[in-house]
Short-chain dehydrogenase/reductase 3
Amino acid sequence: ILNAVIQTFLRPRLKCVDGELCLITGAGGALGRLFALEFAKEGADLVLWDCNSDANEHTARLARELGVQVRAYTVDLSKRESIYEAAEEVRADVGCVSILVNNAGVVAGRRLLDCPDELLERTLLVNCHALFWMTKAFLPQMKVKNHGHMVTVASALGLFSTACDYCASKFGAVGFHESLTHELLAENLSGIKTTLVCPYIVDTGMFAGCEIRKELRGLIPPLEPLYTVQQAMKAILAEQRMICIPRLMYIPFLTRALLPWEANVATYRFMGGDKCMLPFIKNIEMKNSSHVQSPLDSSSLSQPGLFMDKCKDQ
Ligand SMILES: NC(=O)C1=CN([C@@H]2O[C@H](COP(=O)(O)OP(=O)(O)OC[C@H]3O[C@@H](n4cnc5c(N)ncnc54)[C@H](OP(=O)(O)O)[C@@H]3O)[C@@H](O)[C@H]2O)C=CC1
Ligand SMILES: CC1=C(/C=C/C(C)=C/C=C/C(C)=C/C=O)C(C)(C)CCC1
């Protein structure tokens, strides 16, 4: 405890990542691109993974302008084999990755019973399962040198929850990060660091519409993407184990554990945390409503709620 208190007041020493090989997943997305550019500014060579080839290539071009070596790979993180194959390619092309930023993430953004099974499954595969396969693919090389850094971009919603498919996957990511950290410590692999990043809403569009009670929005506004990544970078370079962005998010994390369930529910209701996803879901529904589906096309079979409604209609 004393150590933690002292560290809070000391200016942390930031490590140098010049010449390290850093792999970032979801590098075509908002935060992934910013992570890539921040690591490039620090002199790290980059391996960029995303399922969106164009967006990933765009990030690669921007990073190359900063003078580092960059390779972009199109990978579907929801498929274990795709991860293992791409990892083999990376090893053959550029060698050992020493910093892994597991940043890619998805959200279905539907009410549970309206959500196609495939979308729910994808949330868990990309946000949680992929962390296992990425670790199995890249940790062995780090272990050989007892040198590396595993970064997990989870979420504040991995520490406390609201009604959303995404929370379970991010709780899984937090649990995975913690157990990996314990495993490394138990094996005395102190040269391999881990950092857990838990941001609140970031203004990237991923959660467009998600909002808390109007009167409190000024107190906890959505985060700027660049600020979020810069704070996360500081934590990574300081080899900090965990960061909540903003720091205010440590409070619901702690109260979730300390207060009775009903007290948490009352607080969430008061702050608008209980229904924060509803306008976001409405946004998605509006976007999808233009997409007309035939009553019994194959994808509707995996949506029990919808399927039952359609049976009733017929
Ligand atoms: N935005 C927010 O409010 C917050 C985000 N986070 C987390 O931060 C991380 C980055 O979020 P953000 O930058 O906002 O999101 P973006 O949607 O902008 O970026 C995510 C990237 O991951 C890619 N991706 C999605 N699925 C796969 C897949 N199966 N295989 C490979 N790549 C995939 C996306 O491609 P495509 O665009 O084609 O789907 C996209 O390029 C995520 O883990 C998210 O959960 C945490 C807290 C808050
Ligand atoms: C639930 C809840 C809150 C709202 C949290 C929200 C709205 C989080 C959104 C996070 C996102 C979108 C993360 C993405 O990864 C408050 C008001 C802090 C109070 C405590 C309970």
User: Anything to note?
Assistant: Residues 1 and 301 are 53 Å apart (CA to CA). The two ends are 64 Å apart (CA to CA). The chain is about 50% helix and 10% strand.
